[in-house]
Each structure stands twice: as structure tokens, then as C-alpha cells.
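Ticket #4471: structure output looks truncated?

Reporter: J.K.
Steps to reproduce: submitted the chain below (565 residues) through the standard prediction queue, then opened the result file.
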Amino acid sequence: SGSGPHPWPQTQGGAQVVGQEGWRKKGLDQRGLQLVAMAAKADKSKKVDKEEAPKDLESAFLANKEWEYPVEQRSGWLPLGAQEMVDAHPFTRRAVEKNPRFPGYVPAEALFCWAEADFASYINSGGFVKPKLQCQYYISPENPQSIVDLLEPVLSDMNWVCSVDSNVGRDEEMTATTDYMGMPVARSKKLEDGTIETIKPSDKVAPIFIWEASRRMVDRKPTLKYRGLANRLDGITMHTKVGMLELVRERCIERDIPINFPPPWYPLAFVLPDDLEQWKRHAEANPHKKWIYKPNNEAMGRGIILVDKITDVDSKARPFRTRCRNVEVFDPSEAPLKERDFANHGVIQEYMVNPMLLENRKFAVRVYMLVARVKPFLAFHYNFGYIKRCGEFYDENKFQREDLFRHITNQEFQKKQDDFTESSAAQLMSIESLDAYLRDNMGIPAFRLNFWQQVKAICMEVCLGIKETCTQDCRLGSFEVFGLDVIVDADQRVYMLEANRDPSWVCDTAVKKAIIPEMVREMLELVFWAHSPEGKGKEAMLSSPMRGFEVLIDEAFGFQALDLD
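Returned output as attached by the reporter:
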């Protein structure tokens, strides 16, 4: 005890403190005292660093832009102008008003995967809270698995996830009330009957990409509002038999120099029952002609009737109206040669009696046309296709119901033959192989070149026929690929038969496997390019990622592949 320094370490707040006299008694010299002083200073510096650590973390968060999402979480495609649209979105503006010190920006993907609460939590937290950032693509459950298998690899590469939930939307009305953090909260509303309704903030989001089937299953407007993509052109009816006939008639009138109907590339046709009397007069004046009836909204050979004479359609004993029966859903197990009724609406078309034959069998060619963008209009045709043929030998004099397998080339219909797998109908052929066959066996040179020139002209006519409707009725983001069926006569003239908006995607032969998967992949690449910043102000002929496709119309640059007039 005593009043001098204690020879042992003292403590202050749990830390040992040693006076200089105490250290000297421990035998330390002046150098030792300097080292002790330096250690004490360093210890004091560490305490200061710990006190300032929270401030340095925030600075590092801002300096390193840690409010941003990592690249691997971002979408592989975004529409042109997406960032500007999300910056101006009401959900963004209100949240930024609550937190004007928000250091960053809302990622453009939020247009397609965030609800109002996600915008608020991200902005109000200054980017510390990161809602899930993954866009969805919607594929209608009515689509066959074959097209799902073709689309999925490409869309998944975009870092999108598949959804079949048709309950989509984008409610732009902001929640009336928020909590002290600016988060939208549910509110109560008293109804007329005295009950209380709880109105919760909407959690609906719109997919960035939609692939519909034959029926409309999902609301496309929320997706198209922010320039997402949807595979349907509103207002287009050319995929129906009557719609195609009307388009061709209008093209004959609207061209610079009008021509008579039918044009050289489309068989004469009439709408039934509207043009029944007109058709009867024509058929009576041309009794040598044969006809084929096709119901308006059907495919795969369903409802087709071979017509050899007027009484096959209408007579005093059996008027046409008594032969009509509207069938909403065809029975897939129905016998292919069963007696058929006329539909309430359809076309009767002149039958080509002199088709080009392949090993004495009638054949048709499936080709593809793509409307990749509607504003400004951009369309392509695909330079590869395949031949589908009948299983039975062609004979124009055998034209009854039991002869359908020698006249209808549709593969789904031909598959109903008992011996389909062993018949020629199962053996599809590429156009390149057909070109070689015709050269070697029929002495026809350069068939392929002549064929594609005519197909290009037909596709141009069709595109010009729908262009105005696309411009007026379709929103940016709409696109569609069509399967067109054409037939060639003995003089190598090509005729348009019909257009399919849901062509077969089944890759069940080597020929289809060589054509369809690559066509689908390139189609998506062209659609993405046409609606992205990469395609802005770029001419498709020079800059688009086309390989098998060829530009038909590029309205932005005044380009048309052919001058039809």
C-alpha cells in the first residue's frame, strides 16, 4: 500500500493499465516504453475503427453499387425502352418520393415480375432488400409437348421460369394506404350489406413472353403494355379458310393495278352458304371441274368433303341447309372415311386435277412465314420446308369419300391409315431431296430456285394483305409464325392452299428434326432482336441474326423483297 504507483497492472473497464514506474520495475528501458506506447496507440485506433465501421459499410455499399442485382440474376432479353418505362412507373415514382435518397435505379425486369410491395421494399430500403428478380414466360397448357420442348431451352437461357398460371395482370392503381415505411397495406371497405371487405394490394404480375395455343387462355394486354412478347396477331383471320379467301379477294382489288379473282397463285373458291347460288352457276357452266369442301375453323383434314357434282352439295331432295351440322369438337376416334356433314361455315375450292406427282402420289409442301414485328412491320419467310404426300396413288377419276387418302396430304389424317408406318405418306422429304428427285427422274432442272421465287411472291401477297390490320389492331410485341401449305401443278406453278397458326411441331421424322428445331430457335432470335435495343434503327437484311429466314418486308427501311406490281 502507499501513495506511489502500484507495481502491478491496474484495470480500467476490464483492461489492464500499467504505469511507467510499474514497467520500469519490470525491467523495461526507454525503447521498451516506446513500444508499449505505440501498442497502446494502435489499440486506441482499432477502437475508433470499430466505432466508424457502420458508416464505412454504408459507403462501401454505395461505392460498390451493391444495390444492383448480379448479372447472373438479370434477364437475357428486355424490350426496347424498358428502363425508361420502369423509371416512369407510378410504383417507382411513389416509392422514390418516400425515399428521395434512393441511390440507384429499379431494374427493368420489375415490369414483369414485381408487384407494388416489391417496388416499395426495394426502394425504401435503399436497395438492401432485394425482391426476387426472375421473369416468367407463359405457355398455354393446350400446347402440345413438342412445341414446349422446342421453346423451353431458348427461354430458360434468358433466365426466365415457366408458368401456366393464366391469372395474370398488372393493376396500375396504387394502394390507397401505406405504413410508416411506405409499404402498401390492406384496407377495409364496408359494403352495402354491412359486411367488411378487406382489399389487399395486388400481387399479380404479367409474363414477359406468352405462347398461346388455338384458344385464347390468358390476357395478353398486361404483357404487351410494357412491350413484352406474345405470339398472336389480333384481328388476323387468314388462318381460317374463309379468312384466307377474303384476304386474297381484297389483295386482288387493293393492289396498284387491280386484277380479277382468283389470282394466278390461288384456286377459285366460294364461301358456303353465302356464295352457294354463285358457286352452283359456275359449277353448272363448268361441269368438268372437281371441288373440295373445307370447314372454316378446322385442320388436320377434319370435315373435308370431295365434291364431284352440284347434287353432292345441294338438291331439291336434300337442300344444302339440311346437310349442315356444326361440330364443336371432332371425335379423334372417328373413322376417317365416315360419311361427313357440311359445317355451318366453310369454303368450297376448285380442286387441282393436274398436280405434280411424286412417285405417282400427290404431295403438298409446308413452308413458314414469320411476322416478327408489327410496328414498324417486319416479316420473313423461311427457306426450308418439307414435302408431305398421300399414301395412295393419285387418280383423278377416283373421287369419292373412300378415296380421301389419295387426295388429302395432311399428315395427321394420313396417320389414320392402317398401314401408315409402311406407306409412302410416312416418308417426308426435304425440298432439296425433291429437287434432286425431279432432276434425276423427270429431267426438271432448278426446280428449287423456281419454287422459292414463287413462294416468296405468295408470302409477300399474304403479308401485304395483313399489314394494315397489324398496324391498326396489334400492339408492339405481337408476333406470329404461320405454317403455309402450298401445292405445285404439273407445270411447276405454285398455289397457296391455306395458312395454319398452329402448325405441327412434332419432330417425328429425320426431315422434321433437321428443319423445325432450328427454325424455332432462329424465329425467337429474330423476334428478340426486332424488339430489343440491338435492333433499334438497324436494317434486318444487314444486322438481324437470320440464317435460314429471308426478309420479305422491312417497313422501317422501305424494303420489299419483290415488286409485285
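Triage note (M.O.): checked the attachment and the full C-alpha cell line is present. The chain has 15 helices and 21 strands.
Status: closed, working as intended.
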